[in-house]
TrEMBL record:
Gene3D superfamilies in UniProt: Aspartate Aminotransferase, domain 1, Type I PLP-dependent aspartate aminotransferase-like (Major domain)
Name of the protein in question: Aromatic amino acid aminotransferase apoenzyme
GO cellular component: cytosol
Lineage: Bacteria, Pseudomonadati, Pseudomonadota, Alphaproteobacteria, Rhodobacterales
Needed co-factor(s): pyridoxal 5'-phosphate
Organism listed in the record: Poseidonocella sedimentorum
Domain spans labelled Aminotransferase class I/classII large: 26-389
Signal peptide coordinates: none
This protein's record includes keyword Transmembrane: no
Amino acid sequence: MFGNLKAQPADKILALMVEFKADPRTDKIDLGVGVYRNAEGITPVMRAVKSAEKRIWETQESKSYTGLAGDSAYTQALSALILGDAVAPGQIAAVATPGGTGAVRQAFELVRMANPDARVFVSNPTWPNHLSILKYLGMETIAYRYFDEESRAVDFAGMMADLAQVRAGDIVLLHGCCHNPTGANLNLTEWQAVVDHLNATGAIPMIDIAYQGFGDGLEADAAGTRLVASSCPEVLIAASCSKNFGVYRERTGLLMAVVHETAQQALTQETLAYLNRQNYSFPPDHGARVVATILNDEALRADWQAELEDTRLSMLSLRQKLADELQTLTGSDRFGFLAQHRGMFSRLGASPEQVQAMKTKHGIYMVGDSRMNIAGLNAATVPLLARAIVDSGV
Ligand code: PMP
């Protein structure tokens, strides 16, 4: 049996991590894997997370099973953080999932159950795991243009031209904020145009929101998602707490379905719980409990927000420093997009050869498509990266 297995394609980002580790150079810079790192290069446990964990340790009496949908204190608090009051609670079905990846996977499975003919439109480029999961599930995937390689901004005309092909019941996958891998995002006028198009065609939006609070702030980063949720009759939303609560390994995610008619809420909720049961039964609880504890406690929530805001501002400042440094070195504004992008990533727009040159010559590791993790930088390494970019002819 095992002899029949075929080797699966290696995850390029994880392979890059291994290569970085093996590089003996002491001045190497890791801009690869998508994990936040502070100026000391550490991915910290957030203060509020530590406090909540202590509180849970002191008060938790049992680790018996929760519900199949996870703890309702978590699903409700996180739904409210993402959606605000854009949707009435009776129109939301929600389950806890193992990370944002679990939510993405369950969302696709729900689509496949409800409408096996649905095609899934994904941005080109998108988070590679979207494509990999869709392929694994055997779902038809169509890429829509998203990134203008010249300006490094959203190619909105191209996007809308490609979305003209959608049919009723198709799924359009959108990144809620901080697009991975490009860093280029829709503005609210563009979100509205997408909503109008989806409603005119009957296509259904699915939003993946994995970086709320990393771009323009907690509220601003949810604005597109809220607009879609309040304007479209049916919406799927896959959310991750890995980044904004720094609970990566706890596997803390949420899948929400916004339903058109309140009568559909119960059936959708039951189906989501059923999918959890088939795939892993009860979702992980520890990270979810930490998140609910923070969101439902005024002081912890304020402290979490303050630390998240510091994180966001530190990435913005690194972006600005890098753009300024490149402006000085090149005497041109052509790298200004680095300060315009939002979130942890920017696609630099370097060729595979230039990415390779930055690695071999300068010990700078970025993903092959030239996605850089801005949080992998600090004040000292920004000038080194800027010089390497210019030296590599980007
Ligand atoms: N969606 C996107 C766009 C992401 O970048 C990520 C994290 N890399 C996820 C979902 C899922 O994150 P996790 O499963 O670690 O919560």
